[in-house]
Amino acid sequence: MALRGHWMVPHVSICHKHNTSLLPLWREGNRIRRYDSAPQLALLAPKVLAGEMEVGSRKALPFELWVESRLNGHTNPKNWLDQHAFHAAANFCRYLGAARLRLENIPLARVKPKHRPALCEMGFHVARRGVAAIQETLEELQSQPGTPQDGGKAIYPLMYERLAYDHRNDPAYAPFQKILRDHMAATWAR
Questions:
Q1: Among 88, 101, 102, which Cα is nearest to 179's?
Q2: Model's pTM, two decimal places?
Q3: What is the mean pLDDT for each group of 10 consecutive residues in the chain (190 residues)?
Q4: Burial of 143 (0-12, 13-18, 19+ CB in 10 A)
């Protein structure tokens, strides 16, 4: 049994050595017991040894490969996201992926935690190509049923909420906020 520091990063969902999805090991409301890993791991050891926590292998998504690469200090000049702070860029992929669910008529509430990598992949597929691709997706989302009068939260649900409020004072999110703000200023009905 082993734990890797990379596995503590919220965007990491696969062990690249074994091509296996990572599982949440325990949930504990009490902070003292939650972070006292020795007793938690002792409770898990019999399950691990009995093979009760085995999951099937799967191929890593491009988003997951990008996360692992960034965590190992590598960047790719062809990937627009590599110009930006890792955590903000990875979160933006999730926000954009959540917005893109509207194109498939899938409510965000139906996305289970195990599907989060696919959600991030949906956003990553667009965002890695840069500002023009992101703007094109924002326009496509805006053309979906509804009107701009519905408001940013209705058109770009998680993205608008997080960029406008949760990260409004974090400079790492400024490039992503600017893209959404510029798009809304240029296309929103007045």
A1: 88
A2: 0.83
A3: 65 80 80 84 86 82 94 92 96 95 85 87 97 95 72 83 94 97 82
A4: exposed
